[in-house]
Write the structure tokens for this entry.
Amino acid sequence: MSKILIAEDNQDFALLLQSILEKEEYQVHVAYDGDEAIEHLQDHSDCDLVLTDIIMPGTDGLDLIEFVKANSAAKIIAMSGGGIYMSSDRAVAAISEHVEVVLKKPFEHEHLLCCIADILKH
């Protein structure tokens, strides 16, 4: 069973993602900010995939992506609603170099599941 960490500060959206993924029999942990996600990864080095929002309070998704790449073999899917933050050079560089997929919110759940299945089979 693949292990997925969701890092998403919108609790309703995080719980929706958790429900969708658990129905597909993934083992899911939810972190509501980047700091909590990093703590989880430090304690659970066997995470297969990190599904992270980009804009979060405290440690944001870009910092989390950098942490994952430096400290974990987990694959990464970044989620973003866009906005001015995503037009920064730092965001573009982090995303283009370090994640497998970028999903722009809102996205179809079926598309997310296809992306996850494809990433985890490689």
The chain has five helices and five strands.
